[in-house]
Design brief:
Layout: H1 5-25, H2 41-48, H3 95-108, H4 115-122
The structure holds flavin-adenine dinucleotide.
Length: 125
């Protein structure tokens, strides 16, 4: 909310384009909006600290699958005792991939349990 007028105008144009798109499919949609706010990657970076505002994690780019980067897609890193987890272990972003990343990490811990065992254990809750 501390940007110049040109930036605010750009956000307004983007908001309008999105609302117009929905309006095409659901006539009357625009009329029922009381308040709207468009967040951008800048907003996300500011509030969540995600690199370049990428709230779904690292970009799903071919470079992630290059041999030299494969170690960083594995929960077990080359650094003893350091494990990775969360969405960046997976090939897509979002809550479910983040959860699957957690399961993979648990399965790789010295005292961890396998993914099927985790599902069986979760039935108790
Ligand atoms: C506004 C918004 C809407 C979203 N909507 C959806 C949606 O509708 N559906 C969907 O599937 N996904 C959605 N996502 C994406 C989803 O929330 C993320 O992909 C998922 O939460 C990633 O989980 P994660 O555990 O990998 O990382 P995060 O949830 O980002 O967890 C990382 C944690 O590490 C902590 N941390 C960071 N650095 C350090 C440090 N140096 N020391 C200690 N702790 C640290 C952070 O505080 C945070 O708690 C949304 C995200 C946002 C921001």
């Amino acid at each position: 909310m501390k940007r110049d007028e040109e930036y605010k105008a750009l956000k307004q144009r983007l908001s309008k384009a999105l609302i117009d798109l929905v309006e095409q499919h659901y006539p009357g949609f625009a009329e029922i909006i009381d308040y709207q706010e468009l967040s951008t990657p800048l907003t996300n970076e500011h509030f969540t600290g995600h690199y370049q505002g990428g709230i779904y994690g690292l970009a799903i780019a071919p470079e992630r699958f290059e041999a030299k980067n494969l170690a960083w897609r594995d929960p077990k890193t080359p650094i003893p005792g350091l494990y990775l987890t969360g969405v960046d272990l997976m090939m897509m972003g979002g809550i479910v991939p983040a959860m699957l990343g957690g399961l993979l990490t648990v399965a790789n811990l010295p005292q961890g349990i396998s993914v099927p065992q985790t599902f069986i254990a979760s039935r108790r809750f």
